[in-house]
Design brief:
It is a single chain. By secondary structure, the chain is mainly α. It has one domain. A two-stranded antiparallel sheet has the order 1-2. The model has no long low-confidence stretch (mean pLDDT 90).
Length: 128
């Protein structure tokens, strides 16, 4: 899978949802927002998913008019961290190490994600 191909994420989240796993569906959609942050359709889908997920009631922020992820919500923070690790791994597998490291840095700085999960997928060393 090309990690920058946003249509792939639609198939993934819809598959998770169809199999009764809205939590994983939300993580796949969060990955999509990390690749393509300005897609309002994704935010509306996330809004609907988070309404069904325990701890998701705080996930969406409407303070700017359109729905956006509320990064102060613990559920969103956890999903952002998990999605960032998954996305970094996908970019590493696509031999785009610089992009994977950028995702790691953003996740750790902006969302306070822990470093440990990234160490298992993103080794220190030369970029591809």
């Amino acid at each position: 899978m090309n990690p920058a191909a946003t249509l792939s994420y639609d198939a993934i989240w819809e598959g998770y949802l169809a199999s009764g796993n809205p939590e994983q569906a939300a993580i796949a959609l969060v990955e999509k927002t990390l690749v393509s942050p300005n897609d309002p359709g994704t935010m509306f889908a996330l809004r609907d998913l988070y309404r069904r997920i325990p701890g998701g009631s705080c996930a969406i922020d409407y303070s700017r008019g359109l729905p956006a992820l509320d990064v102060t919500c613990p559920r969103v923070r956890n999903d952002l961290c998990e999605a960032s690790v998954d996305l970094a791994q996908a970019f590493l597998e696509a031999r785009k190490t610089d992009r994977a490291r950028e995702i790691q840095q953003t996740a750790m700085e902006r969302y306070a994600c822990p470093a440990a999960p990234f160490r298992s997928v993103l080794p220190d060393g030369p970029a591809f």
